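Figure 2 data, in text form.
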Amino acid sequence: MPAYRSLDPCPLGDQTIDERTDVRWGVKMKAAFITGSSKGIGAATARLFRKEGYFVFLHGRNIKDLEALEKELGQKDSILAGDMANPEEIDNICKSLEDRVKFQSMKLQALVNNAGLFHRQKATDQRADYWESQFRVNILGPARMTERLIPLLSQGSPASIINIATTLGMRPAVGTSAYGASKAAMIHWTSSLAVELAPLGIRVNCICPGLVDTPIHAFHTLPADEKEKVKADLKDLQPLGRIGEASEIADSIFFLASQKSKWTTGAVLAVDGGINLK
């Protein structure tokens, strides 16, 4: 068994002492695993789960960003780096997560399948790997990882899986055929998992973000004045009149992971400012 360093206790947040998930009180610490958590929606979700008393396992490929987030969250030994397109790396991530959860007497109660790959390309210009690369990361990788972690999640019951798809998986858009198809597959997969895992006490739900200010979009890294102009140009696409923020998606993810949604499974929730209505 690896000799992991002891983990810092989770903050109380809004919880009482009796509800605190801290091994020092004889109660197993709640844990969440968020893929693609180095930035954007994943990082915002990690911050919220940590604030609400979870130990958060972080995943991604940018070690520098993950280390900075780990330090911000006040954690140690929480990084599980790897490529969601590589089955061997996924297996290694799952094995490491299993070891750490068991060694620290935690309960894995939330898995957020957030990592994704987005390439915009018209069907007439597609490269040979256009479909394969996005399907590997967006659905085949999460499916493999989830299958490996079902036993661990069942031990943490009641547990939740939250899959992050997109409104592009619900409606077409030019240049997004492979990405949209991979996320449409994730939406259907969510329903199937919800039926199969319900007897194990595992709920499975899906969130479909709309246009959100994250690094997946080129405008995210523009100078502030240029970025605000682009966001202003895009605001009319949403009935609510603006694009979304990563923290708003994180709020919905946490709701579906929490016991406030304990009678909800198989749901597909569009968090998109109403863009799917147009």
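Caption note: The CA atoms of residues 197 and 203 lie 7 Å apart.
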